[in-house]
UniProtKB/TrEMBL annotation, chains A, B:
One Pfam entry name: Asparaginase_II
Protein name listed in UniProt: Asparaginase
Domain of life of the organism encoding this protein: Bacteria
PANTHER family documented for this protein: L-ASPARAGINASE, PUTATIVE (AFU_ORTHOLOGUE AFUA_3G11890)-RELATED
């Protein structure tokens, strides 16, 4: 297998300590290549980076019409939230409105991603619930699909459940190619994740940004989801996170979402471009440096946007005493 | 730069999600190559993997004679300990015997590596001290060098302090080549770390295992340090850690030590071979899979040793609900 290019490196003192390889691609909604690096035909698991694409099942099955999903709820359906108060309150409300509760979520429980929220939970002597799971908004959206379909939500995370079939069909519709069982795994939150070429994920985001090549339901849904995510960037991730800070800075021009193991996807909405990026070794911080460099070069940032991106393009490394000892930085863009 | 080979991969379901490249080398004390993969001439920061080599300064300056370092203390000088009770007690005792205390340590404080020790500290509402720092044993050894040299220990972590000059000279003596300021960084615990070719680190460990090519003080010291580490594997790391489990299983035949950012070094003592390995992207779990595969192939493990190594060669990945969803495994050995 040919090696992808080095797209980030960690420097300590005056010497490179680590190297992170990866691939990236930017396309328009017709599939025209805007830029790329590395092998963009290699299928990769998109993980949480395509939650907005998975959420299109909500529109295929008229769940948004039935339950009148609020914009906050659509943002949470696209989110890997950090378990802060605003996230928990909105997910609880989302479930309540459907007559459901945290006990209907099948994502499992983990400690909040946000440090302060974790410390507060520990200080209160409480265990995390499924609400704290970063995927609880996405799962609430999937539960709304089950209810709108009039089927039993139980087991909705399983690959053979009609909800996951609906999610798979929505994603296949957007990227324009089939997902296959020989490239399938289980995600952290127990739903299936399907590998597809990096270029297919980028194309899907370009189509979602423009509506080109999409069904009417998907075109409408994609706009509603991207509008929701970019209107509520804090709900999509959390305090201090790249996705939140970058979407805040771009004020609607940019949909940006990370996924586990070094995946970054999104759309430069005003250009109608979709992008997808994967760090080969799964390092998240390196993928942040990479996607920030990509946006710095291709998203025409203004000074304020540039300043946010630059925080991630070069990330200082500190040692135990807080001394700056090096940096993780994007290279090759 | 040519790409190193893929030496570990993470599989999710039936598809490879992440790839980890790296280089490894095994040599004897005359520098004869036993096995290698990738670019072994590329200088790498050894980080904590060479604490035993740094500890030779103790013998150069007769600190071991002056303070009669116990075997436990020599093991801790080579250690990245997990902050468990046995570690803290021994480091405290080490410092006390020299008339010093935790306030003389300049490594900084961090939470214990061991999960139970962390939870206990939190439950007690206490902040970690420098004793909990995984490097506190190494720093105690360095303080003993300062006292044996009759100099002020203050600032002993600085590159220009006589203690660090002594440590640098000891390492240069063992690997047989100079360390240079243009390949230098600051380690997590604030002392300098110097990059040298992977092959040089392997050669140093082969020399330490055999005494060949070493001064009398280094030959004696290396034997004492390796004996101490392999007699007290729990002091060198902690409960459940690869270094501890593997050294326990090999009952003195093997010196094994990891360093931050995916470095693994050691010696197959009965063969007189040294080895060094670096995962290019710094992933520790991947470096564990790699070094376990290396030892499985080259260290002639018996059934019990094989069983310990195999736990690390293939490491199951679980999701939030504890389902097994994939594995991280070594490849290409």
């Amino acid at each position: 297998m040919d090696a992808n290019p080095i797209l980030a490196e960690a420097v300590r003192g005056n010497w490179v300590e680590n190297r992170h390889r990866g691939a990236f691609v930017i396309v328009d909604a017709d599939g025209n290549l805007i830029a790329s690096g590395g092998d963009v035909s290699r299928p990769v698991f998109p993980r949480s980076a395509i939650k907005s694409m998975q959420a299109l099942a909500i529109f295929d099955h008229h769940a948004a019409e039935k339950f009148h999903h609020r914009s906050e709820e659509l943002a949470l359906a696209c989110a890997s939230h950090h378990g802060e108060e605003e996230h928990l309150n909105n997910v609880s409300h989302f479930l309540e409105r459907m007559g459901l509760s945290a006990s209907d979520l099948e994502c499992g429980a983990h400690m909040p991603t946000n440090g302060k929220a974790r410390a507060a939970l520990r200080a209160a002597g409480q265990e995390p619930s499924a609400l704290h799971n970063n995927c609880s908004g996405k799962h609430s959206g999937m539960l709304s699909v089950a209810l709108a379909m009039g089927i039993d939500p139980k087991g909705y995370v399983d690959r053979e459940h009609d909800v996951q079939k609906a999610v798979r069909a929505a994603v296949e519709g957007v990227i324009g190619e089939g997902l296959t069982e020989d490239r399938c795994g289980t995600d952290g939150c127990s739903i299936p994740t399907w590998a597809a070429p990096l270029s297919a994920w980028a194309l899907g985001f370009a189509r979602m940004a423009t509506g080109k090549g999409l069904s009417e339901a998907h075109g409408h849904g994609a706009r509603a989801l991207f509008d929701a995510a970019t209107t509520h960037p804090h709900l999509v991730a959390g305090t201090g996170h790249l996705d939140t800070l970058v979407m805040e800075a771009f004020e609607g021009r940019l949909m940006q979402k990370g996924g586990a193991e070094g995946v970054q996807c999104g759309a430069i909405r005003d250009k109608g471009w979709g992008y997808a990026l994967k760090c080969d070794d799964g390092n998240m911080a390196a993928s942040h440096a990479m996607v920030a460099a990509l946006l710095l070069k291709y998203a025409q940032p203004d000074a304020a946007q540039r300043s946010v991106l630059e925080q991630f393009v070069r990330q200082p490394t500190k040692n135990v005493r807080g001394m700056r000892v090096g940096e993780l930085r994007a290279v090759g863009f």
